[in-house]
């Protein structure tokens, strides 16, 4: 399973919001400059995160976006799933997915399920706060994931 650019940029944007939490609402223009991500791409991502309920937004001269809860309450897995969808290594593990004809007798299904659970445990075990703190120790606000 590969995390797309959308997922990587979503994490970078959310880390940026966490680092700048005391700045109030943050414009996408500022995030775009700091992260070197196009405004068009950020607009697509922020729409998904806003729809998922992870951000507050405000219009106007001092408008923008900010986290709607403390960074320690966001887990990376939730952010990635909001923009990437289900993160499953094989389609038969996705809810509602069409199962292959061999699903009932598949000898590898247990392996794929174990991989899926390990991935979920990992991405759900890291908070946005932890990533923001790690970024702060690096000494700059530009980072690559």
Structural class: mainly alpha
The total of helices stands at 6
Shape verdict: elongated
Q: Which regions have little confidence, pLDDT < 50, spanning 5+ residues?
A: none
Number of strands: 2
Please state roughly what percent of the residues sit in beta strands, choosing from under 5%, 5-15%, 15-25%, 25-35%, 35-45% or over 45%: 5-15%
Largest sheet: number of strands, sense, barrel closure: 2 strands, antiparallel
Mean pLDDT over the residues? 90
Distance between the termini: 16 Å
Structural Rg: 17 Å
Write down the secondary-structure element order.
Answer: HHHEEHHH
Strand order of the largest sheet: 1-2
Helix content: 40-55%
Structure, explained:
The protein is mainly alpha-helical. Helix content is 49%, strand content 6%. It contains six helices and two strands, in the order αααββααα. The protein has a two-stranded antiparallel sheet with strand order 1-2. Helix 1 (5-19) crosses helix 3. It is elongated. The mean pLDDT is 90.
């Amino acid at each position: 399973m590969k995390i797309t650019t959308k997922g990587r940029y979503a994490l970078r944007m959310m880390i940026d919001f966490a680092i700048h939490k005391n700045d109030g609402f943050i414009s996408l223009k500022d995030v775009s400059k700091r992260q070197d991500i196009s405004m068009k791409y950020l607009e697509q991502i922020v729409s998904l995160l806003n729809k998922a309920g992870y951000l507050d937004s405000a219009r106007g001269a001092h408008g923008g976006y900010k986290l709607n809860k403390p960074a320690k309450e966001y887990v990376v897995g939730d952010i990635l799933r909001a923009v990437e969808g289900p993160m499953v290594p094989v389609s038969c593990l996705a809810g509602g997915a069409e199962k292959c004809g061999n699903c009932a007798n598949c000898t590898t299904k247990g392996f794929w399920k174990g991989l899926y659970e390990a991935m979920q445990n990992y991405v759900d075990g890291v908070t946005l706060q932890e990533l923001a703190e790690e970024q702060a120790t690096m000494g700059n606000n530009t980072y690559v994931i």
